[in-house]
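Hi V.,

You were right to ask for the full record rather than a summary. Here it is.
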Amino acid sequence: MSSTPLHTEFDGIAQLRDALQNRQISARELAASALAAAESRADLNAFLHIDHDLTLAQADEADRQLASGHAPALAGIPIAHKDVFVTRGWRTTAASKMLAQYVSPFDATVVSRLQQAGAISLGKLNCDEFAMGSGNENSAFGPVRNPWDASAVPGGSSGGSAAAVAAGLVIGATGTDTGGSVRQPAALCGVSGIKPTYGTVSRFGMVAYGSSLDQAGPIARHARDLLELLDPMSGFDPRDATSLEYCDGIQNQPGRIRADFDASTAQFDAAGSQPLKGLRIGVPKEFVDEALAPDVADAVRVALQTLESLGAERVDISLPRTALSIPAYYVIAPAEASSNLSRYDGVRYGHRAEQYKDLAEMTSRSRTEGFGDEVLRRIMVGTYVLSHGYYDAYYLQAQRVRRMIVNDFQRAFAEQCDVIVGPVTPSVAKSIGDNRDDPTADWLADIYTLSISLAGLPAMSIPCGFGSQRPLPIGLQLIGNYFTEGRLLALADRYQQASDWHQRKPEQK
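Predicted structure:
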């Protein structure tokens, strides 16, 4: 069988759905070809667990639904899940030795909702351990490699998801974004990814890193494919205490984002040759600084010109506390990680040391052996900032800065602009191992994404060019006000109709 998956012959989920419903191709054929392709690209290290029987059983069920004429919207569509979503059958390791053999007795809400929509899972995708990292080098099972250049990182923590989509192994994948972990790997791999408003997608069954920051989001090649995945993923979940029942007065359920997308698209269509006329695009001066590589700045500038040619108005704005997002995030996120990861103690589940003298030593040895260096580093930072005598000085202050960051965004949206646009990353992808001697260097790569996560806003990355010194993808970041995911996707779709960066693919090996 060819190592080129059959779904790559179709331009997106909508076209593939038509082929499946018209019986031009079967879900089983589609799944089998995708499995073969995934195994032929083991060099990318994108997948951590593949199970043919599980995938083909789902495909057979999709074929039965398609034959009945009552198939759900995603019936037979091949996707895969980041390995922080618990799944029945497939292992859920969070890319950690701590959970190396763990198999969940239940599915995460994101997994079950996409399965109910008919999507076929190829398996579990590699990531930074417990989603802690910006390059996907922190996985206990080895780094993921960027399909555009095997010596480069794919971005993190959802690097396996972005790499699998970029390489054409799946048409879409789930990811999680705590400080930029959907947007950043999407940018570095030349695909599209969106982080919705915090609370719009259930966190139930997602292995927790930073509970007030973690949010699930899809990665795909096109903005329209993101819509096809995000809409059924979203919705209120009573099992998740952070799940929102209403989004600005509208019930949080599948259909909300699609309705917003359709309304925005209709508005753009009505404007004719200037579809974005009246749309104010804010460009933060803090996003164009000395950290931004010239080739990234050039690509973003050209993308802005494209949006202006479509009728958008550029507005220069300021988000004055952008630089403070790094220290604020790296106090808040490790503090929450310290709390969340305390459950891995070698007693109930997860890795347990073989040799120990007493309970205290068992816990200590188990955690030391089970967690990688970056996870241990963040646990120690988090424990320190939460300790007596330091809580007020660090954690409380970081939360105050977080509120100021929220206010900066709300002031910009209320007074100056409708959407904010800028770079996703300061540079194209680094080489694997570049930051080995400075483990905090990766933290600086999140300068343009962290503030959005701290504010809980929706944001996405779409391809907008390639580097000049190193021809690797560059991403454009679109940031919206709360609950405007559909409008962001419609804007991204309009940009992608006027450009072809999202259509470009790495050479097949």
